[in-house]
Amino acid sequence: MAAYWDGYGYYEPTxxxxxKGGIKAxxxxxxxxxxxxxxRWIETLESFNLGARLDRGKSYARKGQVTSIKIESGLVRAxxxxxxxxxxxxTIKVRTLTGSECELLAEKxxxxxxxxxxxxxxxxxxxxxxxxxxxxxxxxxxxxxxxxTDCSCPDWSNxxxxxxAVYYLLGEEFDRDPFLIFKLRGxxxxxxxxxxxxxxxxxxxxxxxxxxxxxxxxxxTGTALEAETSPVSPEPLPLDPEAFWGRLPENPVEEKVSxxxxxxxxxxxxxxxxxxxxxxxxxxxxxxxxxxxxxxxASSAGMMIFLxxxx
Amino acid sequence: xxILHAGRVGKQFFLWGESPAExxxxxxxRGRKPKNPIVxxxxxxxxxxNLSSALELLLGSTGRKEAEKINVWVPTxxxxxxxxxxxxxxxxxxxxxxxxxxxxxxxxxxxxxxAIVLLCACMGKKVLAPGIISGNDLLWWADxxxxxxxxxxxxxxxxxxxxxxxxxxxxxEPVFSGEDAGELAKLAxxxxxxxxxxxxxxxxxxxxxxxxxxxxxxxxxxLDWIVRSEIGEKKPAKEPRKRKSFDSVHDAWVSALKSPxxxxxxxxxxxxxxxxxxxxxxxxxxxxxxxxxxxxFRLEEPAAEKETEETEAGKRDTKKGKGIADIEVPEGxxxxxxxxxxxxxxxxxxxxxxxxxxxxxxxxxxxxVKNIRQFLLSSLGQAAGISAEIASSLEAPNPSGYSLDTxxxxxxxxxxxxxxxxxxxxxxxPGWWTRKGTKTHLKAxxxxxxxxxxxxxYGLTLDKIVSFDWEIALGDRALTVRELQALAxxxxxxxxxxxxxxxxxxxxxxxxxxxxxxxxxxxxxLRDVLKLAVGASEKADGVDVEGLNAAGWxxxxxxxxxxxxxxxxxxxxxxxxxxxxxxxxxxxSWLAFxxxxxxxxxxxxxxxxxxxxxxxxxxxxxxxxVEAKVAENAEENAEEKVAEKVxxNAEEKVxGRKVPKPVLLVCPTSVINNWRKEAARFTPELSVMVHxxxxxxxxxEFKKEAMNHAIVISSYGLxxxxxKFLKGVPWSGIVLDEAQNIKNPETKQAKAARALExxxxxxxxxxxxxxNVGDLWxxxxxxxxxxxxxxxxxxxxxxIPIQAERDPEAAGRxxxxxxxxxxxxxxxxxxIISDLPEKMExxxxxxxxxxxxxxxxxxxxxxxxxxxxxxxxIQRKGIILSALTRLKQVCNHPAQFLKDNSAVSGRSGKLARxxxxxxxxxxxxxxxxxxxxFAEMGKMLKEHLQASFGCEVLFLHGGxxxxxxxxxxxxxxxxxxxxxxxxxxLKAGGTGLNLTGANHVFHFDRWWNPAVENxxxxxxxxxxxxxxxxxxxxxxxxxxxxKIDEIIERKVQVAENVVGTGEDWLTELSNDELKDIxxxxxxxxxx
Lengths: 311, 1087
Prior knowledge:
heterodimer, A: alpha+beta, four-stranded antiparallel beta sheet, 12 helices, 8% strand, disordered N terminus, B: alpha/beta, nine-stranded mixed beta sheet, eight-stranded mixed beta sheet, 37 helices, globular
């Protein structure tokens, strides 16, 4: 880190350049983070007694001065817009778990399915740290030395307000997806799940997976919500005229009643709600609020069409 | 006639049509070769004009894009394409090889909005309008749209991003989970291949898009459109939209989700990242939606045990005055078991206990164990967020369920179950738990005291005030206040009452106690009490007001209403002539019973069972009752007795005399004459007035005239037009024949019907009215206003639950409520079948249209002139015989007479009536034979009926070769297709034709030779026939058809000549006698 110090002492930088479309913190005032684990994460930061820089960090996060955050194994990289036209680069390094540590951890967790179950739904089980402790580790950084932070800004203190801003936003992201903490600690979710799975299964188990069931299909762009492991194979038109025109034996009295049903749910937008906050949401409006309105309106339109009442 | 088809080329929806070819043989085109010499025009292409008029009829004439030419790839044999149905052209019966060949058709590209309106109009409807028929593919697209609608209603979709290579769009994407995936697969399997056989005009190879993909794309596009259409900007931008700059790509996305084209504007890198992040966000659902199983929670009640200890303690408590007899609080534990339920076979349930480590032979063996575990853990994790007990169960490895006590079980039933269910889990609850809680629960009951005897006679109406007191009951056991309080003290939400689980919640008990304090006794009208009795009541002060404890006559009344038995079976009225069958006595007595109480009745007997006759009996009976009362009153008044004022307003003063009020009978025009005839036959004492035609009476004149008659017959059209002065008449009763004419409550005629006042109301219909939920409200509202609640309330409480949610409880409740007011018997009912002759012969009197009437008059004039001039002998005989034929043709249809191949609909009373009656036959899934002596009429009938009902109509006439004839008969009798109508010319075929598949026989015109007619009828009525056969003989009232029929019936001697069979004897009559027979009487015209 370049220390900025000139003979006149430390300067408080002037107002930062405004950013449009930066990552906006969800929290408007008060504390960041709502879940206990995100709060723990933030506690660590706040234990460093940074005073004013913490507040500046908070306001930076709320104003959207952080323009990008990338979370990788053992490393967080971010860009924060300060008073300099060029945004500052922030890095946060964390020690990752070794392979054997991972396995040990998985074994511990396997004993209580609640751990894995909660993780899969985006929640950090309360006593998960105890599992870490049993193998001599901790999920969260305990002291300042557990982290290595760096920022290209002129402020010599570490962590500076830019690092603080990133730290706060990370807290909000951990709120949404606790796996990110694991990811940061070097635990890949897919690997982890397979290790967890391993914990239950005797070595000789058969591993034949049925095509199309319980599997995911990789998809590059777009969002495929259903696994279609078979490629799209062409289906030629039939030559038999009856099959072609789809003539069915029609008994009008029987065939009239279709088995389709339509229900308008009482809790709107249940699916998006289940999925939770969108990763690094920068939009002006709250996504779930917008969606709730939309879903409610669309429901009645859908019901009308189902009943064939569209004129 | 046009059969509409539809399909997509890319994202564009096209509508095209098939019609019978103009010329008989395929046209060989000469002259300039078309641009693409390989692709020929489809010989059955409806063409732009026909399509355009069909579209105008269905969608209105708003601006549309021009029609285009596209290719349809159709199985072709020998150079000729095979059309979709015999309605278009004969389908060659060859087994030769077919090839796929392209044919051009004219098609209209439809915008999404138009396509959707069209498909909504088509849903489940084979015939969209006379002559416009939905092809199977069109019906299928409507089904697919319906599915998209249900997905939108059920909110089973997520916002997404699609694209690549620089262009990204926001998209609303359906989530096909479990059952929906199954539905999608089923839909794909049902897709008629023709729906995906469209291609651009320039295509050289047939399209091969798989049905699953085509179906899915359409559903996705439709869903996206449905959501967007509700939330987006309504007007498309006039100029190309200026690229709004957004603060962030997420804002751009949200805006694109609402915009018409969905394009997301932004930096390419950011867009790509957005796409990736979106997928990341959606991931947790992927696990659950791709699984073939659903995670379920099953609540199991405690095993029955430890009975003795309970009851001992219970007994002790009861003795001390503390406990309540019959109520026990079982001590055992309940269990919530985790299960996996297969979507494909919902009866397959696997306890999760076994799923952690599937054993050999388990159906789970074929899946990757790692995936199963992830699925189980993921599901449990979600459920743990909903229910703390589930979370606790996860503290131990391999969780499989958890135990709970009664309080916790109650909480599960009332809270967790709904939450889990809404989150997508399956919840299996014990059978005794319904949506409203346990089947038995606390309710308020009205205890009505009434005198023992049911007072017969008039004056007792539903407005009578009845007093009662309330009691709180559990099941059928009334509770005292003390017992209620003891129940509250138990603090057990679920108790067993006489072996049945009953829900007892604090709030309900408190409400019950409050209710009791406030309403120790009450008063209500008999009408409200009735509503209570059939279940059409609502909650009062938070307590379910359910059921009645009625004693005495009120109980009797209610039982009679519900069971439709026990009421007095009346003898035929004095002035009634003719005989009633036993079931008709019951029907008419039921009508009288309801009439007595002023309750509207719907007689929905099957066609042919005699609704007309039963109604006439009722009208006669009612009138006789009124006249008797009038006489009684006159006597009493003479004695100056101040007795109970009876027969309130049963009569009115007209010209200073007291006259009984008339009955208004509304029916379709085609049936007016039938009613007139039937009334004359069965109730000759009742004077009938027919209100129709331009010369009909109006206003005050009408009222005066009406009051002088017993029955006033009019049509639905006039009901609506003349309602102003119809309202002014004090009707004793209103009868609506073919009441489905008011099934839409918004129509003018429905509103007019409701606007009239009368002492009693009757609706007649042959269609299964209780099966058509949508029609029910309107008819019930006419019969008993207010009974089914408001229209909006009905939609909310019954229509949507039954039609959309398939809620059997709502369906059952509706049945209970409407039961007392609808009497429907089928020809096949065991209680009736013995009353019915195996062959029922009925005459149906039809009317003539104005055109027919003027043609008839013209022909008559001609004949009369000719007769006057002719000499005796062969010449005269010839004139008479030809006259008979011509008049018969006029009575059949003007086009048959004029031989001008002109339009068919709306010009013949007989044809209108036949179409109406066949409609009922088809609705009931039955089959009919139609006989005519004219081959040209047969052809006309075939084409008209095909266009009206959208199905193939067989036509057998003398010119049909034997092999073809046999094939027709085989198809009619045994074919798997539903061929409901067979038209035959009387001369066709000999004996030995077996057509017992039909149980209705129509004689469109008469041969006047009973032997010949019976022989024809007996094609259906012979050994092998399992149903009762109805024979309908059509007669145009007021014409020669009626006169000749009368003569033959009465076997009257005309002059010295004996009436013979056939028509020769007519030639023996004198001119004057003939003129009398042939004359056209006023009542013939129906318009």
